[in-house]
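We emphasize that the prediction below concerns an isolated chain of 248 residues; any contacts that depend on oligomerization or on bound cofactors are therefore not represented. The input was used exactly as deposited, without trimming of termini.
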Amino acid sequence: MKKIKKILISQPEPAEKSPYSDLVEKYNVKIEFRPFIQVESVSLTDFRKQRLDILSHTAVIFTARTAVDHFFHICEGLRITIPDEMKYFCMSETIALYLQKYITYRKRKIFFGTGNLPSLLALINTSKHKTEKFFLVLADSFKPEVPKTFERAKLKVTRAILYRTIASNLSDLKLKNYDIIAFFSPQEIKSLQNNFPDFEQGNILFAAFGPATAKAIKAAKYTLTIEAPKSEIPSMSKALDVFLKINT
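Result of the prediction step, given as a token string:
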């Protein structure tokens, strides 16, 4: 195994010190960050084509902070004022608190789970909210299991595509300069292929976070060397730590 000197993380650079910083010091490697994808709101024209009436709903479901941003962006573009009676159901407390960016938190009906779909669904069922008309904010690349989870519970849920994932412009990147590239979503593999149609992996090692990402790498006929999460390896930084410990 060649000596690992340079690693590319296909995500935005953390605003504060992160576990990746510890890897730099521990193994004397250079780690760079570059988002392979970016998210943008759908146009108002595309939203109107979905023929959805936000104000005919009594509750909104957010599964990510990004969804919050794009929901209120669309509302602003449509000049819609969300009534104070609207209920907000969030996957986690972090997402719920993020709502403060757009609304007066203490004056609204906000509920949140513990970070997963089952907890959010249990909250809706046990809190007597089953009769609400839910507006589920999704990206174009949403996981089918998300809306199906609510639909199987016989909730009145409207799927709304409010934002989409597009490939970043990576034309200035010299991929051959990196020993490891870490990916976090199937969309990032598509971005790699769109930006570098003639790319050959060669000696570059690929790391994947999540089974969908791993599957996308293998489907694209690339070799996958590092995979997370696994037992006792909950994060990409930990997976890299384990790999570098063995291979340096």
